[in-house]
Amino acid sequence: MKEFNFIKSTPNGVLEGVIRFVGKFVFLKKNNDSVELKRLIRAYKAKGASVEVARNWVKIDFIKDNKVVKLGDVEVNVDEMGKSDLETFLYNFYKDRYEKSGFLVKETQKNESVE
Predict the structure, then answer these.
(1) Residue range(s) defining the domain that contains residue 47
(2) Are 31 and 106 in contact (CB under 8 A)?
(3) What is d(CA 12, CA 19) in angstroms, rounded to the nearest whole number?
(4) Among 6, 35, 40, 42, which residue carries the largest CB count within 10 Å?
(5) Domain total in the chain
(6) What angle do CA 4, 6, 8 make, to 5 degrees?
(7) Is 111 a member of any domain?
(8) Nearest alpha-carbon partner for 94 in 110, 82, 108, 105
(9) Which backbone phi and psi does 97 adopt, to 5 degrees?
(10) Which contiguous run of DSSP H or E holds residue 85?
């Protein structure tokens, strides 16, 4: 499992939360029902992802049973990656995207392997 915290001030208030990676799943801790969170969930669903909302966490599975997934400009062969490698790839991909979008990103101490 890997995770990071993110925070950013916006005209609509402060956006902050936690993103956790467990195997092929991405978990987003929802601190509130913000417009941005609802927009993000709609965007994942529009792209075919499976999204489950339960209490404070949103579980996102955009890999599903696909063997190859394209993230940004990179094609990933999911079948050839172990859980730990996939978590690391997803962590680095999302961390880079959030930093480029102006978020302050901080790695948490909960990062550990699932294999």
Answers:
(1) 2-102
(2) no
(3) 21
(4) 6
(5) 1
(6) 170
(7) no
(8) 105
(9) -65, -45
(10) helix 83-100
Reading the block at residue 31, the tokens are: 């601190």
d(CA 100, CA 84): 24
Q: Which residue matches tokens 């941005």?
A: 36
- Inside any domain, residue 109: no
Which stretch of DSSP H or E encloses residue 23? none
Q: Are 69 and 61 in contact (CB under 8 A)?
A: no
Residue pLDDT, tens place only, 31-81: 766 777 788 889 889 988 999 988 889 999 989 888 888 888 889 899 899
Cβ neighbours of residue 74 under 8 Å, at least 6 residues apart? 93
Quick check: is 112 in a domain?
Answer: no
Residue 32 tokens read as: 């509130």
Residue 113 falls within a domain, yes or no? no
